[in-house]
Write a structure and sequence with these properties.
Length: 91
C-alpha cells in the first residue's frame, strides 16, 4: 500500500463522514421542525436519504419554513399564579 492508496482511503473516510454528518443534521432538523415546505416530512426524509449530498443540501436551503425549530417555551415568572388565583405575597 503506497501513499496514494493511503491518501485515497483518508479522503474516502473524510467524505463519508461529511456525508453522514450532513444527513444526520438534516434529519434531526426535519424531525424537530413543526412545519416544512410542502407539509410532507416523509417526502423530505426520503429525499435526504436517497439523494446523496443533494437531498440534504436541498432540504437545508429550501425545506424549512421558519428559522427556529420550535418556539421558545414560556416559563412562569417567580411568584406568578394560575389564572383566577389571587396574587401571592412575596416575602
Amino acid at each position: 500500500m503506497g501513499w496514494r492508496d493511503g491518501l485515497t482511503l483518508v479522503g474516502f473516510f473524510a467524505l463519508s463522514g461529511v456525508w453522514y454528518g450532513l444527513q444526520a443534521y438534516a434529519l434531526r432538523d426535519l424531525i424537530r421542525r413543526p412545519r416544512v415546505r410542502g407539509d410532507n416530512k416523509v417526502l423530505w426524509a426520503l429525499g435526504i436519504l436517497c439523494l446523496p449530498f443533494v437531498g440534504a443540501l436541498l432540504y437545508l436551503s429550501v425545506g424549512p419554513t421558519s428559522f427556529l425549530p420550535r418556539p421558545p417555551e414560556r416559563r412562569p415568572r417567580p411568584g406568578a399564579t394560575r389564572p383566577g388565583e389571587p396574587p401571592r405575597a412575596e416575602g
